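sorry for the late reply, my laptop died twice this morning and i had to redo everyting from scratch. anyway the thing you sent over, i finally got around to it. pasting the sequence first so we're on the same page, its 79 residues, then the predicted structure underneath. double check i copied it right bc i was rushing
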Amino acid sequence: MNKYELALVVSAKIEDDARTATVEKAKDYIVRAGGTVTEVEDWGKKKLAYDIQKMSEGYYYFIQFEAEATVPAAVEQDV
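ok and here's the structure:
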């Protein structure tokens, strides 16, 4: 199995519960595709490098996982 990292930026405008649900959904996609989540890092609220849909801040999460080479492409389509 190979090691991968998924960088996930979640809108700063949504509530804490919705943010947590979004991260859990991404983890579920990885597991359903055959991967194993090894670590989730919460980097908190950060300024974006440039505005995206008129937003200048977002919550950064880094999900580390192990999977076969085909899993990242499958996860990218779902997330």
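The chain has two helices and three strands.
thats about all i looked at so far, will dig more tmrw
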